[in-house]
Write a structure and sequence with these properties.
The protein is an all-beta fold. It is built from no helices and 17 strands.
Length: 278
């Protein structure tokens, strides 16, 4: 669906930046302006899709949603934990642990899904520990600048822009109603040992937009490390679904072991089958 945006700049001289936000989750696609695309993936939230060199790291990633009921009861849903690695050459490794359904006890260890992207060699790998096979596919190398561009300087805490979203009505909403989106630049702050730049996007849906009898507001905060080229903390507050938080922790800037980006010894490498009849 194509979305048109009309902006009215609130800060004189500031660039008109508007973002359209509906319900978000860790599987939604996010783009850091002028930097690096981030894509969602199973049980792990966003992981880097492009190649960044000279910035090795390892970290753990946790995604959690907390709902608060009217009586004050808190429900914590699907805590997803992921291990992330990147070496100086831009290779990445993602380890995702399968989530057990709520209320189900299992004596067995949940499986771990491992994916390795090696843009230097031009391959992507998926490790299957059960069959001891490595499924390999081609992946074109893609480099992005090591020195990420500096965005326009906006005073911390100042509103960047106000946007009126022109899109098809959602859920039978009155076609004359439009949500209002305001984005603010937040003062940089250290998060888990790295400096992060933040933005806060507030989206207000007028009464009647979803059948709501009063205005409904969602708030999304995104904190991105220029050094790592990826988000280190995102927080989405939506009264319909609760508060969803994705954070990186145990961040290390040491070079990861080279063996993490190679197929394990003794594993069979399986290449995709090509149908020569086509």
């Amino acid at each position: 669906m194509r979305v048109g945006i009309i902006c009215r700049v609130l800060l004189p001289g500031a660039a008109c930046l508007a973002s359209a936000q509906t319900t978000q989750s860790t599987t939604s696609a996010t783009t850091v302006p002028n930097r690096i695309a981030i894509v969602g993936s199973f049980a792990g939230g966003p992981v880097p899709s492009n190649m960044v060199t000279g910035q090795p790291y390892s970290a753990q990633q946790e995604t959690q949603t907390v709902q608060t009921l009217e009586d004050g009861t808190h429900i914590t849903n699907s805590v997803a934990k992921v291990k992330l690695y990147r070496d100086s050459e831009g290779r990445t490794r993602t380890e995702r642990t399968a989530q057990q359904p709520p209320g189900i006890l299992s004596a067995s260890t949940p499986p771990v899904f491992i994916e390795v992207s090696d843009p230097v060699a031009g391959y992507r790998y998926s490790f299957d520990s059960t069959s001891q096979k490595v499924y390999r596919s081609l992946s074109a190398p893609l480099r992005v600048p090591n020195q990420l561009p500096v965005p326009a300087q906006i005073p911390a805490g100042g509103a960047i822009a106000r946007a009126v979203i022109l899109s098809a009505p959602v859920g039978g909403a009155n076609p004359a109603m439009r949500p209002e989106v305001v984005t603010e630049q937040l003062a940089p702050q250290p998060i888990e040992g790295v400096l992060a730049e933040g933005t806060r996007t507030t989206t207000t849906y007028p009464a009647g937009f979803f059948g709501n009898d009063r205005p409904l507001t969602t708030i999304n905060e995104n904190w991105t490390s220029r050094e790592l080229g990826m988000p280190v903390l995102t927080k989405t507050s939506d009264p319909r679904s609760g508060v969803t938080t994705m954070r990186l922790f145990n961040i290390s800037r040491a070079e990861p072991d080279a063996s993490l980006f190679q197929p394990p010894a003794g594993y069979e490498i399986v290449d995709p089958q090509v149908d020569l009849r086509k």
